[in-house]
Amino acid sequence: MSTENQHHLCFRDAMACLSAAVNIVTTDGPAGRCGITATAVCSVTDTPPTLIICINRNSAMNPVFQQNGCLCINVLNHQQEPMARHFAGMTGSSMEERFSWDIWNVGLLGQPLLRDTLASLEGVIEQVQTIGTHHTDRSA
């Protein structure tokens, strides 16, 4: 194994040890409704309120988020681990099934807000940038 590959694997292993909030990031609009489980969410500033969300650029959900232009970050509580598994694609439930459960509200921007979360943060995607294997979506 090359030194570069060893460094890559060490970096991935180290990143897997980082503690992070678990979120379900949702969108709804002309391109459809979808959601993903994400831990790569970071607050940037509160003036104006701005977050960065990182989504693998190979994800089938990327074009849906970008075309809809809005999203909601639903910060999960510890009892919502099953929802994180559903939206990570670990249970085989379809996207349609995930949104058919009576656990959703609609936010001011028309985005799906999961009930009983620690927080639900709706925003408009203001900028998308490609960094390595991911797109970073800046939302305010």
TrEMBL record:
Keywords: Aromatic hydrocarbons catabolism, Flavoprotein, Monooxygenase, NAD, Oxidoreductase. Its EC number is 1.5.1.36. Pathway: Aromatic compound metabolism; 4-hydroxyphenylacetate degradation; pyruvate and succinate semialdehyde from 4-hydroxyphenylacetate: step 1/7. It catalyses: a reduced flavin + NAD(+) = an oxidized flavin + NADH + 2 H(+). One of its GO terms (biological process) is pyrimidine nucleobase catabolic process. It is an enzyme of class 1 (oxidoreductase). Catalyzes the reduction of free flavins (FMN, FAD and riboflavin) by NADH. Subsequently, the reduced flavins diffuse to the large HpaB component or to other electron acceptors such as cytochrome c and Fe(3+) ion. This is 4-hydroxyphenylacetate 3-monooxygenase reductase component.
